[in-house]
């Protein structure tokens, strides 16, 4: 979506309007020019015929030949010929230039004599009329388009207003708010329908989401309760019965599996409810202090060495429980996947935290390691398979950036806090 | 001590009762919201273990009622719900502690005793076992009245042992008590051995109270 160049609806409609306007102008101007020219030409010819006819009649009736060269002249001619209509250039002494004229020559018998009647009309004037008409046409067309453009933009904005309002409402819609989107109605049928559809859809989503949440909570509750009973009974059994060493081992082992289930359940619930956490629980957290404390704890139980390097002081304003879970999971992950003595290295810089552990080769499908229940290989040590998924989810919720890379024979997990 | 166990899950209720009665506590039980309200209105308890999800009502409302009647009882909330909101709400309402299911009874026992110590003696109580004295406020440990230096974990371990005297504690239980969630990342708990050994060394002549049970568990007792 980011790669595609996008454009707003109003821009799009405006663009279409401008494009159509330009095409219309480009097309209509030559047509108009051609049309008017033709019309003017016809008019000129009509005038020439009319003038020629009047001259002929005048001469017939009065027996007198009127001449006003170069506009009209009558000359005797030896024989009748078909009429000639042509353009001609004539010198105009008043303007000291040659002008284009249209010329009609007809041959008539007046009072027994054959005459050639020539009438001329200046074409340049009609040319000017054409140009003026075109200019006027273009100006008014442009004016109409400009007015139309702004008007339709304002109009579109008005028409689409409910759409944009509802779009904004949708963008602010959150499942956690658990209340339906508030949309504005419109007298436009499609928008009204869209509104109804969105409302139905969102209430459906909210309903399903709440159902799922309730389901998760119920399952979690039922599981925890059953596990608690098993745990308590086992413990009483261990204390009250005479059992053998081997039985004790087996029962302790059972306790461990109960614990594993409980942990798995706890983590699944955490994953399911992570994005419902409230920001009011946020507080200032010194990552340096927190890590110092956690590393002490981890060193006591870790078979591998843990080094902590604090380059800068890093203070976060965040959810302390999540931050602790984030780091705990990364550290557990590093400890679990270290062969040999380590060491695990933790580096705190001004905006980032890096945790690395030695390894043989880069993980093959690095993008899959953050998935739930992803196992690197068969010999991976048992774990919930949720640690890194939780890490990623927490980073997503807190808007941190977590990445994995392999360098200098070490697996690196880097979190950049923004 | 008189303890009320308000828990709607009968099996769990019975198990807790059995476990606590070993320490000569008097335990009464309530299986739903009404019964819990009824009991706290009739009797005074030193300690109330309160499940949040009670039949017909919320343990938090029982807690409110307790606080309204100015009860002196210590309150520990038991919940299957791990959400921080619930924890904070419970603690804000005046609960003394919060424990999430599933828990080890030894852990619950240890917490009960911690709450009782704080409540009855203003935080200055001493834990006494034979020649071992623990001043819980200053976190000092005296063996035959001579102070010994313990690390934080060794101290916690000793308190855990003494509060669960005479009971078998597996390595898992101890690891969980001391390291909480972090302990579940490891598949063997041999590191516990190191801590127990260190504690034994520091206890000197009193070290024989820590005994091995069934090969891989521990029990703290005088005989």
From TrEMBL, chain A:
<dbReference type="InterPro" id="IPR003594">
    <property type="entry name" value="HATPase_dom"/>
</dbReference>
<dbReference type="Pfam" id="PF02518">
    <property type="entry name" value="HATPase_c"/>
</dbReference>
<keyword id="KW-0812">Transmembrane</keyword>
<dbReference type="InterPro" id="IPR003661">
    <property type="entry name" value="HisK_dim/P_dom"/>
</dbReference>
<keyword id="KW-0597">Phosphoprotein</keyword>
<dbReference type="InterPro" id="IPR036097">
    <property type="entry name" value="HisK_dim/P_sf"/>
</dbReference>
<feature type="transmembrane region" description="Helical">
    <location>
        <begin position="129"/>
        <end position="151"/>
    </location>
</feature>
<keyword id="KW-0472">Membrane</keyword>
<keyword id="KW-0808">Transferase</keyword>
<dbReference type="InterPro" id="IPR036890">
    <property type="entry name" value="HATPase_C_sf"/>
</dbReference>
<protein>
    <recommendedName>
        <fullName>histidine kinase</fullName>
        <ecNumber>2.7.13.3</ecNumber>
    </recommendedName>
</protein>
<dbReference type="Pfam" id="PF00512">
    <property type="entry name" value="HisKA"/>
</dbReference>
<feature type="domain" description="Histidine kinase">
    <location>
        <begin position="218"/>
        <end position="418"/>
    </location>
</feature>
<dbReference type="GO" id="GO:0005886">
    <property type="term" value="C:plasma membrane"/>
</dbReference>
<keyword id="KW-0418">Kinase</keyword>
<feature type="transmembrane region" description="Helical">
    <location>
        <begin position="16"/>
        <end position="36"/>
    </location>
</feature>
<keyword id="KW-1133">Transmembrane helix</keyword>
<dbReference type="InterPro" id="IPR050428">
    <property type="entry name" value="TCS_sensor_his_kinase"/>
</dbReference>
<dbReference type="InterPro" id="IPR005467">
    <property type="entry name" value="His_kinase_dom"/>
</dbReference>
<dbReference type="GO" id="GO:0000155">
    <property type="term" value="F:phosphorelay sensor kinase activity"/>
</dbReference>
UniProtKB/TrEMBL annotation, chain B:
<dbReference type="InterPro" id="IPR039420">
    <property type="entry name" value="WalR-like"/>
</dbReference>
<dbReference type="GO" id="GO:0006355">
    <property type="term" value="P:regulation of DNA-templated transcription"/>
</dbReference>
<dbReference type="GO" id="GO:0000976">
    <property type="term" value="F:transcription cis-regulatory region binding"/>
</dbReference>
<keyword id="KW-0902">Two-component regulatory system</keyword>
<protein>
    <submittedName>
        <fullName>Two-component response regulator</fullName>
    </submittedName>
</protein>
<keyword id="KW-0805">Transcription regulation</keyword>
<dbReference type="Pfam" id="PF00072">
    <property type="entry name" value="Response_reg"/>
</dbReference>
<dbReference type="GO" id="GO:0000156">
    <property type="term" value="F:phosphorelay response regulator activity"/>
</dbReference>
<dbReference type="InterPro" id="IPR011006">
    <property type="entry name" value="CheY-like_superfamily"/>
</dbReference>
<keyword id="KW-0597">Phosphoprotein</keyword>
<dbReference type="Pfam" id="PF00486">
    <property type="entry name" value="Trans_reg_C"/>
</dbReference>
<dbReference type="InterPro" id="IPR001789">
    <property type="entry name" value="Sig_transdc_resp-reg_receiver"/>
</dbReference>
<dbReference type="InterPro" id="IPR001867">
    <property type="entry name" value="OmpR/PhoB-type_DNA-bd"/>
</dbReference>
<keyword id="KW-0238">DNA-binding</keyword>
<dbReference type="GO" id="GO:0032993">
    <property type="term" value="C:protein-DNA complex"/>
</dbReference>
<keyword id="KW-0804">Transcription</keyword>
<dbReference type="GO" id="GO:0005829">
    <property type="term" value="C:cytosol"/>
</dbReference>
<dbReference type="InterPro" id="IPR036388">
    <property type="entry name" value="WH-like_DNA-bd_sf"/>
</dbReference>
